[in-house]
Design a protein that fits this description.
Elements (H helix, E strand, L loop, with lengths): L7 H11 L6 H13 L1 H18 L1 E2 L6 E2 L5 H4 L4 E8 L2 H10 L4 E5 L17 H7 L7 E4 L5 H14 L5 E4 L15 H9 L2 E2 L1
Parallel strand pairs: 3-4, 3-5, 5-6
Antiparallel strand pairs: 1-2, 6-7
Amino acid sequence: MATTPAGADIENLIRLLAKLPGLGPRSARRAALALVKKREQLLGPLADALVQVGEKIKPCRTCGNIDVNDPCQICTSATRDPSVICVVQEVGDLWALERAAAFKGQYHVLGGCLSALDGVRPEDLYISNLISRCESPEIIEIILAMNATVDGQTTAHYITDHLVNSDVKITRLAHGVPVGGELDYLDDGTISAAMASRRPF
């Protein structure tokens, strides 16, 4: 990364910002300049928010969502259907489904997907936790909402193979999710259509 004449502190800020998804060195420099330029409106409140998030946010031990509470608000909500679990790769996928208001059951966040290339194995994900949850007689359906990528589908097949002898119905998202698409980048209408048109896996 090219250096700037602004000093080591700004360089450190730019380096940290550049590690965020979607921000390269150039975007990180622009973001750093905006923060410094509007330090009272942006920099201070952002620093405070980061500290609060770091102190309060924790993963839900039931589903893997992040919240200030453990279990999270979704897991403890009396308005959610406890008999259906939607399995997603990342918390961002859960948020996308919630944004679309397409699902009213429970969730399970795997924390990624199986990938031989990246060395991600079943034990690196929350798959065993999911299988344990499916042993409850209360669970009647699992919706596999994996990203439509090779690794996403490999993960879905792995989970299906391990639940094949259970009494749980296994479905997957259908129309509207393109091959290679990721849930977090889809519009709300597409997600709603995919959830409504799910089919057996």
